[in-house]
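anyone seen this seq b4? input:
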Amino acid sequence: MAVKLPASISDSAVATVGRQIVEPNGVNVILGQVTLYVDIRDFHIETRDQLVEETIQVAAICRKASNSGTAQQIADTGLFSTPGIN
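predicted toks r here
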């Protein structure tokens, strides 16, 4: 579901995992916790914000299934301007 999420919202939206912290990060060990930092971008602020909200909802579904965890937006760098792109 999460893999197809950006394309379902906008042709120009992307979401990439920029960093992941796996604990206890041992070989052949059942994970206790995984923290993901997801970079969400789009040329249009409305669809970018929609993708952020839906990503948080997907994280909430995962949290409910595992009975633990949190999801939150930690930064918003806003829009940027690129000549020739509207």
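Residues 45-66 form the longest helix (22 residues). The chain is about 30% helix and 20% strand. kinda curious what u guys think
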